[in-house]
Design goal:
Layout (H helix, E strand, L loop, with lengths): L3 H6 L7 E2 L2 E5 L10 H14 L11 H21 L7 E4 L2 H11 L7 E5 L4 H14 L2 E5 L9 H5 L6 E7 L11 H10 L3 E5 L11 H4 L3 E5 L10 E5 L1 H4 L12 E7 L2 E6 L13 H17 L1 H22 L2 E4 L10 E6 L6 H10 L4 E4 L1 E3 L4 H6 L10 E5 L6 H16 L3
Parallel strand pairs: 2-14, 4-5, 4-6, 6-7, 7-8
Antiparallel strand pairs: 1-2, 3-9, 8-9, 10-11, 12-13, 13-16, 15-16
Helix pairs in contact: 2-10, 3-10, 4-5, 11-14
Length: 421
């Protein structure tokens, strides 16, 4: 049994007053808070190790322990998403870098195409847009429906035998939409296309099984899963990682650089190390491993069930006020634990909303994000114009939130709605 009150105590920031007010943190879709176990793992590295890791580097005791702990963290990531091997896990800075690695190294011809959607985070769209510009191939967009959902027919219209890769977000950071991943993988593979899923918002909140889903690549940002900043992971089927070209070259990716007759001949390491040039974020890797341990101990089914109860109340409570436009599906079971909304009135904009909840509420600061969530195309599609400063407010939840916090927010949102009359 999970004692959620004890979980909350692992996050010291929530147990302090800020400017004399208690904090209600509703911005986890941007950045999850970190439990003490994570920064203790990182502190161990910086305090007691601080050495180089990686094959062929420092082979003294501190270097060996650094390598051992970071490789153990890689194994934990592999287990967390049920990869076939830790050799299918590449360390990155974030999900954005993972997407750029795939796009930059993707073997694609001019007469082929890449398929993505209008609901993508810019990080899941722009790397492939850039690739298509460089190669001259076609970028095809599947338009999300007005409620942010898709069905299989949407993808069947755009995917054909010339499609090299299909990239889409598993759980949207804007609408919360849970995409039909299994259907898209099936359609894509029938045409010989590879599939990459953006798991930044899904994996921290749900059990992800890449082997069962048969997805070819997945990207994760660990900072959204209670882990440190500046560390992420790219999963890829090993036989496909072998087909990708080098992304960065330099130290720690080579087996040898032979010099003969005035010429060099590099011999590169196999995946995953061929994608991990240079000194790495060893402390971040250890922190990532601690974050995965933390979530695994709670259990991802418990995480999902707790968040879904919050999401249901949050979504229904905002809709009951009838003063706000809610983005995304209206069934809480079809979405992640976040709600993006904006006043139907033009009296106040998204920045007014977040400033009100941050500064004007007695006893509490309710911290949310406002803006466009790096998902401009879909907002243009439904009539929101980011270029003119239009945007939304997003409330996003995680394991350390409580139902009491949701109720406080809804009460204060009702008070705010009165100012819109």
């Amino acid at each position: 049994m999970v004692v959620w009150a004890r979980i909350r105590k692992d996050f010291p920031v929530l147990n302090q007053l800020y400017e004399g007010k208690s904090l209600i943190y509703f911005d986890s879709a941007c950045m999850a808070l970190k439990p003490v176990q994570v920064w203790e793992a990182m502190e161990y590295y910086y305090k007691y190790l601080g050495a180089c890791g990686g094959a062929g580097r420092s082979t003294h005791s501190l270097g060996v322990e650094t390598s051992q702990l970071t490789e153990e963290a890689r194994v934990k990531i592999a287990s967390f998403i049920n990869a076939r091997s830790q050799n299918e896990i590449i360390w990155t800075r974030n999900a954005t870098e993972g997407m750029n690695i795939i796009a930059a190294t993707l073997p694609i011809e001019k007469d082929q195409n890449i398929v993505t959607t209008s609901l993508e985070h810019h990080s899941g769209m722009l790397p492939f847009f850039k690739k298509c510009q460089e190669v001259g191939c076609e970028l095809r967009l599947v338009d999300a429906k007005p409620d942010g959902t898709f069905d299989a027919a949407d993808f069947e219209e755009k995917i054909d035998d010339k499609t090299k890769i299909v990239s889409f977000v598993h759980a949207s950071n804007l609408t919360g939409t849970i995409a039909p991943l299994e259907d898209v993988v099936k359609i894509s593979h029938e045409h010989g296309a590879w599939v990459v899923s953006d798991e930044a918002q899904f994996a921290p909140h749900n059990k992800l099984d890449v082997k069962k889903l048969d997805v070819d690549f997945s990207v994760l940002s660990i900072h959204k899963a209670c882990g440190p900043t500046g560390i992420g992971a790219l999963y890829g089927k090993y036989e496909l990682l072998e087909q990708l070209d080098m992304f960065l070259v330099g130290g720690d990716v080579i087996e040898d650089v032979v010099y003969e007759n005035g010429k060099i001949t590099p011999k590169y390491l196999p995946p995953p190390h061929k994608f991990e040039a240079g000194l790495q974020n060893y402390g971040g890797m250890m922190g990532a491993g601690a974050a995965i341990d933390y979530l695994q101990k709670i259990g991802m089914e418990n995480v999902h069930n707790r968040e879904q109860s919050f999401s249901k109340r949050l979504l229904e409570g905002i809709l009951e006020l009838e003063k706000f436009e809610v983005l995304g599906p209206l069934d809480y079971k079809q979405r992640a634990a976040l709600v993006s909304f904006r006043p139907k009135s033009d009296v106040m904009n998204h920045n007014d909303v977040t400033e009100y909840f941050n500064d004007m509420i007695p006893h509490h600061k309710i911290l949310m994000r406002s803006g466009n969530m790096c998902v401009h195309p879909f907002q243009y599609q439904i009539g929101i114009n980011p270029g003119k400063g239009e945007g939304i407010t997003r409330a996003s939840l995680y394991i350390y939130n409580t139902m009491d916090e949701v109720e406080i927010f809804l009460t204060e949102l009702e008070n705010f709605a009165k100012a819109l009359d």
